[in-house]
Amino acid sequence: MLLLEAGPDYADRSTLPDQIRYGYGTGLRGIESVHNWSFKGVRNRSGGEVPIPRGRVVGGSSAVNGQIFLRGTPEDYDAWAAAGNDEWAFEKVLPYFRKLENDTDFGGDFHGREGPIACRRFKRSEWLGPTVAFYDACRSNGFPDCPDHNAPDSTGVGPVPLNNPGRIRISTMIGYLDPARHRLNLTIRGGCQVKRIVFDGACAVGVEVESGGATSVVYGEQIILSAGPIGSPHLLMLSGIGPRDQLDGLGIAVIAERPGVGQNLRDHPSVLLTWRTRPDHPLDPSIYSDQLCLRYTATGSRLRNDMIIFMTSVAVDHDAIGTQPSEPIGVRMRARVNLALGAGQLRVVSLDPRVQPLIDYNFLSSEFDLVRLREAARISVRLASHPSFAPYLDSMVDPTELDLASDDSLDEWLKRRVTHGHHISGTCRMGPASDPMSVVDQHGRIHGVDNLRVADASIMHDCIRANTNVTAMMIGERVASFMRAGS
Q1: Are the CB atoms for 413 and 403 separated by under 8 Å?
Q2: For residue 338, what are the contacts with CB-CB under 8 A and spacing of at least 6?
Q3: Distance of CA 122 to the CA centre of its chain
Q4: Would 200 be classed as within a structural domain?
Q5: Which among 35, 111, 234, 423 is annotated as catalytic?
Q6: Any residues with CB less than 8 A from the CB of 83 and at least 6 apart, and which?
Q7: Which residue from 161, 277, 319, 449 puts its CA 20 to 30 A from 302's CA?
Q8: 260 in a domain, yes or no?
Q9: Domain boundaries, position 405
Q10: Is residue 355 part of a domain?
Q11: 323-338: string of b/e by CB count within 10 Å (b at 16+)?
Q12: Residues 6+ apart with CB under 8 A from 207
C-alpha cells in the first residue's frame, strides 16, 4: 500500500512542529502554509471571503483541527440509511465509533476503551472561570446537565469530548499511521501532490503525481481518495468525473458524468459573539479553552439537537482567523446551526490542480437557518447577562447594541458575519445509482467507474449534528471494513 500526501510527513512524532503536536486554545489560527492548504471561500450572496484552513500534512485536517471529538446524533446516520445507504444506520456504525476510540471517561455499550484515538473531557476542577459561568447560566436558563455529549440521547450543557490528552493532538497520523510504519506492505510518501487520476477506459489504474519538481504516474490495483471534501471532488473533476457542463467548459474529457460532484456542499453556519473581559482577568492563549458546549433544539424545530453553542474562555481577534494569532481580547460564544437546510457548491475553475476550486457556502439561504441562528445569538447574549459572568465581562464587542436592536438589524449582522464550522462535507454524496446526484455508492465506490473509491467526509449524505472529526475517522474504518469483506 502506498500513501501519498502533498504536505510533509513527520516519520517520528518527536519531530512534529508544535503547531501540529499541540492543541492550543487559538484553534486553527496561525497554521503555516507548509501545513495548510489555505483555501478561500465565499460565505453567501452578501459576499465576503472566508479563510478555510485544511491540513496539508500526513494526517490531513485531523493534524491541524480543534480536536473536538463529538459524534453526530443517531438520527443523522439513520437518515443516511433511509436515503438508500442501509449500511450506515447508527446501529451499524456504532461498532466502528467504539473501535476507533479510547474514551478515558466513559465505557459501556456506547464507548470504546481500546481504540487508537484517546478521548477525554475537562473535569469541573479544571474549568476556567468563564466556563463555569457559562455552565451556571445555561442551567439557570433551564438547560439540562450533560456529562457525556456522545451518549445517544444526550442534550444540554456539559464538557466537550476532545482527542487531546496532555494537550497532544491525537491525529490519525499519531493514532493510526505511527504504529503501522514498520509494516513492509506500507509506504508513506510526503511532498507528493496528486494532479489527476489515470484511467484505462472507465477503470482507474493510477495517479499522476508531482514530486520534487518531476511528474510521474504511479499505478495501483485500487485507488482510494481521502483528500477531504475539497480535495476529493476537485481531483475527480480534474480527472473527468463530475458535472458535464463544468468539464466541457474546461476541455476535460468526461470519464463519467456525475452531476453531484462538488454539489451538496454542507457545513455548519456559525457566528462568533465576543465580549471584552475586565482588565484584571488573565487570558492565557496557550490554554485549551473550548471546554464546554450547549446542545439544544431550536424553537419550532423537529430536528433534535440541531443547535450548538461553544464557550471559548480565551478569544483572539475575530479577523485574525487564518493568520498568525493575535493577543487575546476576551471571551467568545460560538453559535452554530448543527443541521442546516441550505447547501453550497464547489466548482472546478482551472486545469491547474494548484488553482483552488470555487467554494460557495451559500450560507443562510434558508429562512429556517437564519431564524435558528438568530435565536442562538439571542440565547448567547442572554447567557452572558447571567450574574455568574459579572466578574469576567467588561463589554460586548461583536455584535454591537445597534446590531441587536431589532431582528432585521441582527439578521444583517448574521449574514455579514456568518462563517463556517470547518466542517465541509457532502461534496461526493453517497447514495444508490438511481439517485442522479449521488457520487459514490454506500461502499465508497464511484458510480460509473471501476477501482476507485472515496473515503472521507465528502461522502456524507448530509452533514451531521456535530463536528466532523470523529465521523470522518469512522468513515475510514467503515470503508476499510467493506474492502476487507470484498464489498
Answers
A1: yes
A2: 268, 295, 305, 306, 307, 308, 465, 466
A3: 21
A4: yes
A5: 423
A6: 431, 435, 461
A7: 161
A8: yes
A9: 126-159+270-339+364-417
A10: no
A11: eebeebbbbbbbbbbb
A12: 4, 194, 195, 196, 197, 198, 217, 218, 220, 223
pLDDT at 329: 86
User: Binning pLDDT at 50, 70 and 90, where does residue 28 land?
Assistant: low
Shared-domain flag, residues 196 and 314: no
HSE-CB of 396 using CA atoms within 13 angstroms = 17
Residue 311: CB atoms within 10 Å: 29
Query: Is the model's pLDDT at 326 over the cut of 70?
Result: no
Q: Is 423 a catalytic residue?
A: yes
Query: Is residue 428 in some structural domain?
Result: yes
> Can you give the pLDDT at residue 328?
84
Q: In terms of domains, do 80 and 144 share one?
A: no
pLDDT-based confidence at residue 29 (cuts at 50, 70, 90) = low
Are 380 and 277 in a shared domain? yes
CATH number of the domain that residue 144 is part of: 3.30.410.40
Examine the domain organization and report whether 407 and 472 are in the same domain.
no
Residues 192 and 73 in one domain: yes
Determine how many CB atoms are found less than 10 A away from the CB of residue 93: 24
Residue with cell 487531546: 164
* Of 223, 189, 198, 194, the residue nearest 209 (C-alpha): 194
pLDDT at residue 459 tops 90:
yes
Q: Which residue has the cell 465565499?
A: 42
Domain count across the chain: 2
Question: Which CATH number covers residue 80?
Answer: 3.50.50.60
Same domain, 432 and 369: no
pLDDT value of residue 318:
53
Same domain, 148 and 254: no
Does 273 score more than 90 pLDDT? yes
Neighbours of 411 (CB within 10 A): 17
Whether residues 19 and 88 fall in one domain: yes
Which is nearest to 310 in space by CA: 466, 101, 125? Answer: 466
